[in-house]
Amino acid sequence: MSNATQLIHSIPVDEQTGSIAVPIYQTSTFVQEAPGVNKGYDYARSGNPTRATLESIIATLEKGEVGVAFGSGLAAIDAVLKLLQAGDEIIAVDDIYGGAFRLFTHIYEKFGITVKYVDTTKAENVFEAISEKTKLIWLETPTNPTLKISDIAAIAAIAKAHRCLLCVDNTFASPALQQPLTLGADIVVHSATKYLGGHSDLIAGLVVAREKELGDKIKFIQNASGAILSPFDSWLVIRGIETLHLRVKQHSANALEVAKYLQSHPLVDQVYYPGLTTHHNHDIAAKQSKAFGGVVSFTLKTDTAVAATQFVTRTKYFKLAESLGGVKSLLCHPAAMTHKSIPENKRRASGVADSLIRLSVGLEEVEDLISDLEQAFATLQEEAKTSVSYKKLATV
User: Fold this and answer.
1) Does residue 43 carry a catalytic annotation?
2) Same domain, 196 and 115
C-alpha cells in the first residue's frame, strides 16, 4: 500500500452509522449499565471515542503500538519526561526547540533531572556524552530552526546498547516523510499543531510508542496528569491528516525552490535546508526521509537583529507569526520569538544567530513567494543605504 493510500484509509468509517467522517463525541461522561460495566468508556479524561480514533491513526502512521493525544506539543513532551525520575540524565540535541529547553531547564532540572546538550549531527558525540545516568536521548531531526539532521538509526543503536530510550521529535518531517520508530527509536512526539493539523487552527500534541508496555505507561501519565486533547481538536487533527500527504509533498517542493533562490541571493549568508546537496548530512536526510519538508532558515550577511526585524516586517505573503506547517506561509525571527527563552550564549552556540530567519513555506504558488522575498530584500537594501547598522548589506 502506498504512503498516500495508507494515510487516507487509516481513518475509519464509523461502524455505528457508516459516517465517512469520524464523529465528534462532545461529552464529558458515559452512561454505564452497572458500576464498571460500560461500552468501553466511562469518563472523557480517561478516554473519548474521537480522541481514541486519532490515537489509533497516529500509531498506524508512525508504525507504533500505542498513540496518545495531548492538549499541546509541550504537554506531549512533558508526558515523556515523566517517565524519568530524580538522578536521571537526558542527552538532548543542542539546537532544541525553545519551549522544550524551557521545560527541561526550568521545570525538570529542579526535580533532579539533568540535561546535556550535544551536537547530535555526529553520532559519536552522543556516544561520548552518554553515562550510566543517561536514561533518555532527545532528538529533533530536522531541528528547529537550523534544520540539523541526525542519523536516527545510528543513535538508536547507541541508545539500545546503553539501555536508554530514544525519543524523536518528528514534527518537522511528519510521518508522511519520516518514521523514526522503524529506524529504532522508542518514542515519537509531535506538535500536531503543525503539519498534522495543517491549517493553523488548533493546538495539539501526540506521542507514539513502539512497544505496548511503554505506550501503556504514557497512557497512564495522560490519564493521571489530565492534559488531554479535546474531541473537537482531535477531529480537526484527523481532518488534517486526510490531506497530509498532498500538503507535505507540495510544502517540500515549494521549500526546495525557495531554498535554491535564497542560496543565490547576494544578501544571504547561509541557507539551512536538508534538501540542498550542500547541507551537512544531506545524505542522511535523503536516506531516512522521503523528502525534506517545508521549513527553510537563512541568515543575512550582517548578523544583526535589527536587519532581521526589518526583513520579517516587510513581507506580504509570508506572515510574521509563531508556529509553522500551515497552508499559509509564515516567517519568524527565532532569536526574538521561538527561541527567546534560550540564553544568548547557548542560542548562538547552537547556530541560532541574531540574523537568522525561519520560513514556513506554504502552499501558495512558489513564484509568488519568491517575488515576495525579493521585494523584502530590495526594501532592506534600500533602507541599508541610510543606516549605519546595515552598512555591510548596503555594499553587497
Assistant:
1) no
2) yes
